[in-house]
Amino acid sequence: MATTSSFLVHQVPHIIITTPSHIDLRHTCGTNVPTPPSKHNLHPTRKNQNRVNTFRVKSDTESTHFSDLSKKTIINIMEGEISDIDHAELRDQFLALLRSRRSHQVPLTVEQAKPVTDPMYQDNPPPRFSEAMESCPKVDVENFRELLVEENMYLYTEASEQGRLPVLILSMKQTCKAKRPAIVFLHSTHKCKEWLRPLLEAYASRGYFAVAIDSRYHGERASSLTTYREALVSSWKKGDTMPFIFDTVWDLIKLGDYLTQQRDDIDSARIGITGESLGGMHAWFAAFADTRYAVVVPIIGVQGFRWAIDNDKWQGRVDSIKAVFEEARVDLGKSVIDKDVVEKVWDRINPGLTSQFDAPYTIPAIAPRPLLILNGEEDPRCPLPGLDIPKSKAETSYKAHNADSFKVVHLIMN
After folding, report:
1. Is 82 exposed, middle or buried, given 0-12, 13-18 or 19+ CB atoms closer than 10 A?
2. Which of 103, 215, 218, 402 sits most deeply, having the most CB atoms within 10 A of its CB?
């Protein structure tokens, strides 16, 4: 089996690594999250910002439930001219989209919770064991179990039913008052935060606060094996939620608020974020939206959604959440799922995903923070050629920030 290091967040240069499609997580532990090269916040100054290209919207006939800004810049992207927009403005547009879908914003509140003893997995049969996850190496700490601190809580991020965000944090007891770095881990489709516990324990043993959440319609936020699938179909039908990626990004921004504003034991300048598959997409977009995430490691998540449509390579990603595309096919009177169905679904459930919020524009916006992208060499859901343009634009963006450690490495290990 091919193996590679992953979840690497220790002094990572600004690199993209493409890896074999079977990722072994046995060597997944870092040492120290680097201090970011500049102060980060949600709305950095626009002076001297690198500029990226985006599409100008020509029609907003299919838009619903959006602010005027969203209608003008996001919905129903048609063929049109390319215009320049800086990273801060692009981020503002994305945040406006996220706010437009909130039922009602509420002050961030915290409620203590109990450990989950029977986690909800939407796989059938549910996964019970992963050798790769369990073999993640820990530091040899005497009396590890006695020193391990587990925190379970809910953060309330909005007024809707899905606005209760389950959070699990593992760390080690310590006598000194020094602030420690934190890493946010994000699970894949149909999994939950408890699935990540071996990774959380491994990083906790190394002195990190290891944080995991249940993404929207997963884990404690799911009530059945079909909760996530039903949410995707509902999003297509009603256009009022974004369960595939963007709604969870809102939660991760609120998680950032909690970690940086309500914890005096976490170093707010050293918070990393990583995830696998769906979690990799969440990490990618959370880092784009919230610059407080100082180190970013998306695993088998970054892809070119527009590139996949234009090059007839969309099937792998579509098959992973096929129910919503089948529903759209029927609604659109099509005999088969084709690229027209795919584009309409993406524009409906994640507006802008195939245009200004696609990888060629949002990945460069992560600069100059350390970025490591791990993708499978033969992964049909994230085809490597779809990374060529994002990679090229990211190189330009990092150079514009005088970051000379950007590298492109094609890693194959047997």
Report:
1. exposed
2. 215
